[in-house]
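Supplementary material to the annual report.
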Amino acid sequence: MATSFRRFGRRLVGSISRNNFSTSCEKQLIQQQDGGGKSLNLYSAINQALHIALETDPRAYVFGEDVSFGGVFRCTTGLADRFGKSRVFNTPLCEQGIVGFGIGLAAMGNRAIAEIQFADYIFPAFDQIVNEAAKFRYRSGNQFNCGGLTIRAPYGAVGHGGHYHSQSPEAFFCHVPGLKVVIPRSPRQAKGLLLSCIRDPNPIVFFEPKWLYRLSIEEVPEDDYMLPLSEAEVIREGSDITLVGWGAQLSVMEDACIDAEKEGISCELIDLKTLIPWDKEMVEASVKKTGRLLISHEAPITGGFGAEISASIVERCFLRLEAPVARVCGLDTPFPLVFEPFYMPTKNKILDAIKSTINY
Amino acid sequence: MSHPILLIPNNNNNNNNVFVLILQFLIFYITQQLTPHLLLHHLLLHKSFYSHRDLRSLMAIFLARSRATAVQRYVRKNVGFSEIILGVRSSCNSSSSSSSSSSSNIISQAVAGKYFRKHLLPSSCNTTKSFSTAAGRFKSTAAAVDSSFVSESDDDQALDFPGGKVTYTPEMKFISESSDKRVPCYRVLDDNGELINGSHFAQLSKEVAVKMYGDMVTLQIMDFVLYEAQRQGRFSFYMTTIGEEAINIGSAAALKEDDLILPQYREPGVLLWRGYTLQQFTNQLFANKDDDGKGRQMPVHYGSKKHNYVTISSPIATQLPQAAGMAYSLKMDKKDACVVAYIGDGGTSEGDFHAGLNFAAVTEAPVVFICRNNGWAISTNISEQFRSDGIVVKGRGYGIKSIRVDGNDALAVYSAIRAAREIAVTEQKPVLVETLSYRVGHHSTSDDSTKYRTSDEIQYWKMERNPVNRFRNWIERNGWWSEQQESELRSSIRKQLLQAMQTAEKTEKPPITEMFSDVYDVLPANLLDQEKQLTESIRKHPKDFPTDFAV
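Predicted assembly:
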């Protein structure tokens, strides 16, 4: 079933620009403070990270469905030619096999970089990720581990992906001790974070915002660099309200921050980057300063990771909060094709929530 | 599915149309609006509307273009697929050629398909070699051809298809759901432990045979003593290996130390064979501080890095795709070793069984898959588990060599696993071994198997087909074993085991810090917080918690 649909991957993304939401993603995303390096889009930055990972470690492998010719999103372009078909290869169409294979490869001291073609298809591998990868070290008393495993998967809305090419399943994996979940917001972040994930001694699920693969362009240093995991980043300073998000949603949130500023509201925007284990301290410090918190993600609101952030911050900042924590998220429906513009946590939904939190 | 910009001529004999068509196609092709893929797709879908001459003319033009290679590949791929469907249909309808204009007319498509095949394929599909991906890893991609499927009459009409040529047949014949005869079971010793004349088997030295027997007896004693100890409530859970001692020890003895074991949970014998001590086993059962797994898993979930025995996890079959990955690593490192993955009959129904075998086959990973078919998955009999002739026949579906072995004949298991290991390591590919045996014990200490099977059945396997007795008869016949050695061995092991159990029971539990370590390589902030909170709770409510843990 999935194969033919998956083939649309490239076209899906290629035609994003024709879809114009109120929270337009058209503009290039959040620019890094300092320049340097070449202008790259997100999939090319991922590609560069994979090149570096394979180049710097002869025990690194890249595999998954259709990765050999470059992948449906082109993230693995050129890798098989450069590093050979024994290190970069197609696997059978079987997600549990891909992750299981990756665990085995990683357990032998390799860097296993597995690609799941869409995050929507990660569920057949759920058992391997949750019961096997996450517990491999713990259950063996640290005799064995599969820390070299990194699972890459494109996630999130894309304009017309419908149920099975749009989901944001990060919260499922945030409920699993032993895993790390990382989501980059831009090309420079993607490269640095992915290299960190690949080299981190723990199994990691790395969700890539597929909406941004071609859309997000920024200067990316060409050298081999890593960005720290479990460290959030304030990407816009403000004093009235703290906004927390990750991945593609940050651009929508930033738009809302810009509009709020026009109305005299100063927003602080935090990119969480690593969802577990997450940087509670930075969010806490910001909320203690602003007294208000808004969390936004594409995934359905109920049981989303926003709920966890909200609960933790209420625990830590109860007396400093001047309004209830606001959440602007996806709705509790399956991801609906034609209703996507309604489903999404759009700029104006966020802006409204900012205002009502300020005016509470 | 048709491409809307293309006209469909309604008379396939009108040669005047050909020019118009060619012109039309060329314009689109040159202006890049019509890719060769789209064109061919269109041709295939509407081939009934074109005469084969039209098609040939068009093909000639397009194959001559610079993208000819891509086009050829496309033709092979898609013509191949249509041929499979149309070939069957055409064999039922060899009647007149039809010029009907209805695209849903199966007969006309079938005839067109036949034309297409006969007149078009030979010119474009003879270069077999460009087909296969030439990577070294995929050397054995070509499917083995079963001689029973090769028809002599039509073999000049072979379909060139990935994996090797497929011959055609005018005969519409379904492959039977199972072969007429069940796959026989390889054995060397008869039920009395007598060597069967003409048997092929690997020679065993006296030393190895006696150690094998000793370890089988040790397993028996462990099962007896530890099962009882669990029933007395000394630890929480236990699983016996009764009835499957020969699979455990026979396979273990046939492997080399560097071979990596991925066990399920009824293979403690492999670990025993490799030198795991009774003290180490009992430390795990009692989850004390000396347990290699730091007291974190239920009893019998052993694991030892030193013994190349990967820690057991309860989920069924998850180790199989992992086995493929581990074996792939051995392959890349050119190690003289393989991975040996164990599974039960129930586990073959899991998706991971499919994933594991398919990945191992495709990546040509040196894995020996050993299936202990003991007839029962808890209370589910194999008759409710799968159809066809058990597990051994599944191997061929994946392109994996397979053998069925009498799991109660230690010598046969030893010989088969030795050979399987040899194939895996020297030929660099997976092998599947189905061992037929019986789970004489209950599934676990939480199960009472007399609720779903008769005691007669259990007794029969316990007495008549007992694998340990059978092997004992054989070594006694060889003059390698005596009654006196037997009783000395049994009482000595029993004594050691009771001693080990006592020590394990007295040994303190792992410190509370081990609850938080190893979730990640280092403790993240949330776990540091939780450790602190827990320590506080223990301080405040010491009576709420067990007292034998160091805080």
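The beta strands of chain B are 260-262, 339-344, 367-373, 376-377, 380-381, 401-406, 431-436.
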